[in-house]
Amino acid sequence: MTDAAIPRFTGDASPYAGGDPYADHRTADFPFTHLVDLADRRLGAGVIAANDEFFAERENLLKPGPAVFDPEHFGHKGKIMDGWETRRRRGVSASEPHPTADDHDWALVRLGAPGVIRGIVLDTAHFRGNYPQAVSVEAVALPGSPSPEDLLAPDVKWTTLVPRTAVGGHAANGFAVDAEQRFTHLRVNQHPDGGIARLRVYGEVAPDPAWLGALGTFDLAALENGGRVEDASDRFYSPATNTIQPGRSRKMDDGWETRRRRDQGNDWISYRLAAQSGIRAVEIDTAYLKGNSAGWASLSVRDGGNNGGGDWTEILPRTRLQPDTNHRFVLDGTVRATHVRIDIFPDGGISRLRLFGSLTDEGAAALAARHRELGG
């Protein structure tokens, strides 16, 4: 789907009239939301600066879950909103009371994992008459951990991902991005002022090959290292991508759980590793899945090299899993693979899958070439 085919929302939403505040929220099925959110705080994302956050803090932009609305929640500065909200801009004098065309507010966002951005959602949920007239988004790739001052330096060259575009109040405003580059930071602008509830930045992680090479052995499936879910049989209760998020699961819905099967089949997830790798050890964790963990699991791999293809080969036979338990397996030798599939029987869930090993020489070379293509 092209950016032109994505629905556009403009104008105010109706004042809140009671009941479910999301009943009149305007949204759409965006074609990129199956990808990882590069601005997920679990990956280390953060809003590191903003020029103004008078009414509501910038950090709210990256909070997980939808924004919450409490019509009775007021503070000393006014209505407390679950988003980032700036004060009303004014002109320079009584004869020029309006902001200029160039006046705007901004926030600097550090992505949790550097990557290629495919789509952005700026959701103005509950900002019905106090949303920005327009938004724009720029991106840059800088090494290390740059400060706000580093990012705002005059010699930093920003790439426009979303040109200045009118948006709507109480709406999920989505934008497809077509920039085959690796980015580390965003500058989110609202023109001239207003509020944005949530920011989501969907794309593909593009890890630093030098960092992975220095690590040697690492989790080859982890999102932060460039692994990703390619497909899954079921996403009814929670996304399969949860299984390769950082850290251990902290609650039941922080893993992957399927609906109850009433047939003789089984559920599965297929993954693409960071690059061709040699796997030496496996962890399958069912943390917080107690009465609903998978009963058994098996693991298969496929080595497609740089050109894809290859047949599936089982490396871990169907093995009994225990509820709320981290299971560890040392493989008989190093297994070369580009893709991995876990099958669970018959249904249920796992919280995390970890695949420990190293890049092959071919995989390291392919990852380095891709890094150069993306401007790294």
How does this model look, in words?
The structure is a single chain. With 376 residues, the protein is mostly beta strands. The protein has helices at residues 148-151, 209-215, 361-373; strands spanning 36-37, 46-50, 74-75, 78-79, 84-85, 105-123, 134-140, 159-166, 172-176, 183-191, 195-196, 198-205, 218-219, 228-232, 256-257, 267-285, 296-302, 313-320, 326-345, 349-350, 352-359. Strands 1, 2, 6, 7, 8, 9, 10 and 12 form an eight-stranded antiparallel β-sheet that branches. Strand 3 (74-75) and strand 4 form a beta hairpin. The radius of gyration is 23 Å and the shape is globular.
Task: Break the fold down into its secondary structure elements and pairings.
Layout: E1 36-37, E2 46-50, E3 74-75, E4 78-79, E5 84-85, E6 105-123, E7 134-140, H1 148-151, E8 159-166, E9 172-176, E10 183-191, E11 195-196, E12 198-205, H2 209-215, E13 218-219, E14 228-232, E15 256-257, E16 267-285, E17 296-302, E18 313-320, E19 326-345, E20 349-350, E21 352-359, H3 361-373
Antiparallel strand pairs: 1-12, 2-6, 3-4, 5-11, 6-9, 6-10, 6-12, 7-8, 7-10, 13-21, 14-16, 15-20, 16-19, 16-21, 17-18, 17-19
Task: Kindly summarize this structure in a few lines.
With about 375 residues, this protein is mostly beta strands. The chain contains three helices and 21 strands.
Low-confidence segments: none
Helix and strand element order: EEEEEEEHEEEEEHEEEEEEEEEH
Q: What is the overall number of helices?
A: 3
Approximate shape:
globular
Give average pLDDT, whole number. Answer: 95
Whole-number radius of gyration? 23 Å
Kindly estimate the percentage of residues that lie in beta strands according to DSSP: 35-45%
**How does the major sheet shape up?**
8 strands, antiparallel
The structural class is mainly beta
Helix content: under 10%
How far apart lie the N and C ends?
A: 28 Å
**Quantity of strands, as a count:** 21
